[in-house]
Amino acid sequence: MAQPQGQGHAHGAPATPAAPPAAQPGPRPRLPAPRDAYVYIGWPQDGQVISGTRFKVWFGTRNFGVAPAGVIKANTGHHHIIIDAPLPPLDQPIPNDRNHLHFGLGQTETMLDLSPGTHTLQLLMGDADHVPHDPPVMSKRITVTVRPGKPQAVAAGQAQ
Ligand SMILES: [Cu+2]
């Protein structure tokens, strides 16, 4: 029985510590999304003229779920609204600034304050780490015109 001796029993420092290879730097692969998943802006609509600079926007999803940031769950993500900006790079976290708003709690609506004039809005889903899925789940970009003035009457919730 010619068993090798001493391996793992030597005194002192182990000869070859089994260090795992260094983790790959950079982002992990993007999470997949079903091809039929999409998001849309429920309101306002493309071309809408909005009275009042503060208004509600709501988001819809089809074949895709909403989960808060930090939660890794298949076929879910959280909303981002891109205001007056082109799509960001799709292989890295979505920027977080006044043109890229995150809804990391899983919100599906928000109030926007925009200056009078023309603005573009687009939704883009991000995963737990704010990275778009592959393929990206995003709405079409819409254009709205904001007019100064009183906010539009909100019909919902009004007493008769
Ligand atoms: Cu995000």
UniProtKB/TrEMBL annotation:
It comes from the Bacteria. Residues 1-33 are annotated as: Disordered. It holds the Pfam family DUF4399. Signal peptide: none annotated. Residues 17-32 have a biased composition (Pro residues). InterPro entries: DUF4399. Residues 1-16 have a biased composition (Low complexity). Residues 57-147 form the DUF4399 domain. This is DUF4399 domain-containing protein. The lineage of its organism: Bacteria, Pseudomonadati, Pseudomonadota, Alphaproteobacteria, Acetobacterales.
